Design the sequence.
């Protein structure tokens, strides 16, 4: 349902500050069942669409990897490793495959950087992709889940391109992993604004 563009109550500022500053990466090996249910998954992608999107070109899309397709994702990880290192051992290949099975929920984030709408350049599109992904991470956190992004060289591999049926100009960016956290670690220390904000 569309959200009415009414001014938010000031109380939301405190909630937003708490929500955003308490988000932390929880790597897939620390994510357990249950994952998000279908209504919660819908929420994750609804908020993705709230990302700023210059020209409304939606320079992102997402591909879910349900349990029945995890083996295919694992095969893509293994093939990508073999492509980089033909001497990869069976143990290394098994480890690459296993990565696909860790988190209860996995979706691939894809950037759409093709030649249509050339006035919206790649940098702007990637800002939009990142904003959509961050919205998903924050929504997962708001729903009480842990979440993380995992990328790496496999994302650019032929095997991954084939698995995701990427079109020209589309690029796999990372996996979005979501699940239940059993034990949280203290958040890392964040830089304060004086470290990255200046004034003209
Ligand atoms: C596009 C992208 C890909 C990432 N891929 C990985 C990854 O493969 N492995 C990993 O440990 N972290 C990965 N990260 C997560 C960062 O390492 C993580 O954000 C960083 O450790 C800071 O933690 P925080 O999210 O709690 O601030 C990735 C982050 C981004 C933005």
Sequence:
């Amino acid at each position: 349902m569309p959200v009415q563009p009414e001014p938010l109550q000031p109380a939301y500022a405190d909630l937003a500050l708490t929500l955003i500053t308490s988000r932390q990466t929880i790597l897939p090996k620390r994510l357990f069942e249950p994952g998000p249910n279908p209504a919660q998954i819908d929420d994750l992608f609804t908020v993705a669409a709230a990302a700023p999107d210059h020209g409304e070109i939606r320079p992102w899309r997402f591909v879910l990897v349900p349990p029945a397709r995890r083996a295919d994702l694992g095969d893509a990880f293994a093939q990508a490793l073999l492509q980089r290192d033909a001497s990869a051992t069976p143990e290394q290949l098994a480890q690459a495959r296993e990565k696909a099975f860790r988190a209860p929920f996995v979706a691939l984030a894809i950037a759409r950087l093709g030649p249509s709408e050339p006035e919206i350049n790649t940098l702007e599109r990637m800002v939009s992709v990142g904003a959509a992904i961050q919205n998903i991470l924050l929504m997962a956190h708001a729903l009480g889940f842990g979440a993380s992004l995992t990328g790496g060289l496999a994302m650019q591999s032929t095997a991954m391109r084939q698995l995701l049926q990427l079109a020209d100009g589309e690029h796999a960016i990372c996996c979005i992993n979501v699940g239940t956290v059993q034990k949280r670690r203290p958040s890392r220390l964040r830089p304060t604004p004086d470290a990255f904000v200046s004034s003209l």
Q: What stands out?
A: Helices lie at 11-22, 38-48, 70-84, 90-98, 122-142, 158-164. The radius of gyration is 18 Å. The first strand starts at residue 31 and ends at 32.
